[in-house]
Every structure is written in C-alpha cells, then in structure tokens.
Amino acid sequence: MSNGKLVLSSVFLGFLAYGASAAEPIEGNWKNGPVEIIEIKPCGKEFCLTMTTGEYAGKSIGKLSGSGANYAGEITDPEDDKTYSGTGAVDGNALKLKGCALKIFCKTVTWDRL
Fold first, then answer.
1. Listed residue (109, 24, 20) closest to 66, CA to CA
2. What 8-state DSSP symbol labels residue 100?
3. How far, CA to CA in Å, does 1 sit from each of 5, 6, 10?
4. Which of 93, 61, 96, 92 is nearest to 76 (CA)?
5. Tens-digit pLDDT profile for residues 57-106
C-alpha cells in the first residue's frame, strides 16, 4: 500500500473511531426499577425515551434536548399518561431525572445505565 493510501486509511479509521465515541452521554439503555428498561436515542434534534420492557413496552414516555450532562424536556408517566416538564442530568452511569407539575410539585428519580 502506498504512503498516500495508508495515510488516507488511517484518517478514515480515526474518523470512524471519533464518530463512534461522539454519542451523547444520555444515549443508551437505562434501568428504572427492577423490571423496566428505557431506551434513549436520537430523534431529530432531541432524544426520545421509549419503554422497552415491562407493562408499557413500546410506549414513548418523553423527549429531552440538550448535550453533555444536562437535558430538559417533557416526561410522561406511563401509568397515568400525565406529562411533566423535566430535566435530566447524566453523572457517569446514573441519570437523575426531575419532573415537575406546576413547577412546584417535583419528583426526582435516578436510573442506572445498563
């Protein structure tokens, strides 16, 4: 292989490696309690939250936007279909979600990365 092709191949492989590591920290599968797993993946400019196991498997439960460690958007309680404004903060393998009704009644839960 010529030096030009070797350099080009190295650049391409470096680009692929960078692209694979450029995912947002919120992306992936998260565990909420003993049975339920939620998948968070990009959908347009936001991140969609979808239940993948349990009684509500397949149900969309919200959208968050942001980057790095902080996100904000709406989260729906699948049990009663009430939607709350919410925030999420990724800290390593933990995702701390806070949902509020009327901006004063808030609840915080922590999900664990699978």
1. 24
2. E
3. 6, 6, 12
4. 61
5. 999 999 999 999 999 999 898 889 988 898 999 999 999 999 888 778 88
Q: Is residue 74 a contact partner of residue 97, using CB atoms and an 8 Å limit?
A: no
pTM of the model: 0.76
Average predicted confidence (pLDDT) for the chain = 82
To the nearest 5 percent, what fractions of the chain are helix, strand and coil? 15, 55, 30
Q: Hey, what long-range contacts does 31-34 have (CB within 8 A, 24 or more apart)? A: 31/111, 31/112, 31/113, 31/114, 32/109, 32/111
Rounded-to-integer distance, Cα 42 and Cα 113, Å: 16
Could you give all domains of the chain from N- to C-terminal order, each with its CATH number?
26-113 (2.40.128.520)
CB atoms within 10 A of CB 63: 19
